[in-house]
Specification:
The chain is built from two helices and four strands; from the N terminus they run E-E-E-H-H-E. It has about 100 residues and is α+β, with helices and mostly antiparallel strands.
Length: about 100
């Protein structure tokens, strides 16, 4: 992670990010489904076509294989709402920030 971006959102993951650390070393802890990340494992994640195209500071995503999932973000959200309505917000803490001193 680089800079001061605060727009990273994680589902199924929890991160502790320390802004006092230098770029690329800001994440102190990352858990996937409550378990520490396994550095030898391969993880699959979902993002938007906009971000996977390297926009708004996510150029690193260009270095990984991407596979089109066959659905737009809008269609996916509408399908989810139709399938799981009524829905309620999830207030789980996903990112804990340790601010710069």
């Amino acid at each position: 992670m680089m800079g001061r971006r605060r727009d990273m959102q994680l589902g199924g993951a929890t991160a502790i990010r320390n802004q006092n650390r230098e770029d690329m070393f800001k994440i102190e802890e990352l858990l996937i489904d409550g378990e520490p990340v396994d550095s030898t494992a391969v993880y699959t994640f979902v993002t938007t076509g906009y971000l996977v195209s390297g926009n708004v500071g996510y150029e690193i995503l260009l270095s990984f294989e991407s596979v089109y999932g066959g659905s737009t973000l809008l269609d996916t959200v509408l399908d989810y709402i139709a399938q799981f309505s009524p829905i309620s917000p999830d207030y789980n803490l996903r990112i804990k920030w340790i601010d710069e001193e």
